[in-house]
Specification:
single chain, about 325 residues
């Protein structure tokens, strides 16, 4: 069970199949005092971005919006269900919206996408590498699942794995992009995926640290792991934990090239879970210690503002 290490497979698939400058796009149409929102399946769209849109509209049109109508593929504040989006959107706008809107508002679930009359604005997410980095740092399941389904879901993933790695359901099955449930694979295949991902990143003139987390340095799930800080900047990794199954996979940078590692545990009860995680950290630390003479730092300067590299345009 790879748990959230599954996301490494999704990163590999996304970088192989999507343009490296891919961005989710969300369209907004202002008609009178109504703002229609055509979602683009962007799982990263949050209240801060909406405030920016509303502020731009008010600056240009001096309109206080009183009605918001969104299409079913609009995601908001990590919610994807239209009913949950409706509730979260209304609550966020009413409670300290920080944007110029009417005192009384309505939030409506549209029956479909708005056909597109009115003044148009477009929000574009940060580019693909920044989105992947955010997913890796915080292990955001909804974002990984959205990317998985955009790429083709379970059937599309099976085709990609067969085409790229020559493997079938005997070796790997993924039901989710997040790794929450229904996924299995092998350590050996995970090493192959890491190597391929490394190659794909290099082909796109990126660094491993542009998309993967540096333990104890980057914010998120690996920030508090017991990895020796002396060696941490020689490692990028993704951890996982589902139903007491711990996993960790990544790449160690050395003067002789990359060392790929994948560690899965098969303990499925609470008592064994803690020791299993500690064993994983010890294994990685021991590996780093054994190779300390050839370790090479990624010379990584973290850029925590990268996820803010969004665009708002007037069309």
């Amino acid at each position: 069970i790879p748990a959230y290490v599954s996301k490494i497979y999704i990163f590999d698939w996304a970088i192989s199949e999507l343009p490296i400058d891919f961005r989710y796009k969300t369209d907004f149409y202002l008609t009178g005092r109504t703002l229609y929102i055509n979602g683009g399946g962007d799982p990263h769209f949050v209240i801060g971005y909406l405030r920016n849109i509303i502020a731009k509209i008010y600056q240009e049109k001096k309109v206080l919006i009183n009605t918001f109508v969104f299409s079913p593929d609009f995601y908001f504040n990590w919610q994807s269900s239209p009913k949950d989006v409706q509730m979260s959107l209304f609550k966020s706008l009413k409670e300290g919206a920080g944007a110029p809107i009417a005192p009384k508002i309505r939030v409506i679930i549209g029956e479909g996408r708005y056909p597109g009359a009115g003044d148009k604005y477009q929000f574009q997410s940060a580019p693909l590498p920044a989105l992947i980095k955010q997913i890796n740092d915080y292990s955001t399941n909804s974002s990984a699942d959205s990317l998985f389904h955009r790429l083709g879901g379970s059937s599309g993933f099976a085709i990609y794995m067969k085409k790229t790695y020559g493997v079938d359901s005997k070796y790997i099955v993924f039901r989710t992009g997040s790794g929450l449930s229904g996924n299995y694979t092998t350590c050996n295949l995970t090493l192959r995926v890491l190597r391929h991902l490394d190659e794909q990143i290099s082909k796109n003139n990126l660094l491993l640290t542009d998309i993967m987390s540096v333990p104890t340095v980057d914010p998120g799930v690996l920030n508090k792991r017991l990895i020796d800080k002396e060696y941490a900047q020689s490692v990028v990794a993704k951890s996982g934990f589902v139903n007491y199954h711990h996993s960790l996979a990544g790449i160690i940078n050395t003067k002789k090239g990359s060392i790929y590692f994948a560690i899965f545990t098969d303990f499925d009860d609470m008592k064994k879970s803690g020791p299993a995680r500690a064993m994983i950290d010890r294994f990685l630390n021991d590996t780093l210690e054994r190779n300390k003479k050839i370790l090479k730092s990624f010379h990584y300067i973290p850029d925590f503002t990268l996820i803010k590299a969004f665009r708002i345009s007037r069309e």
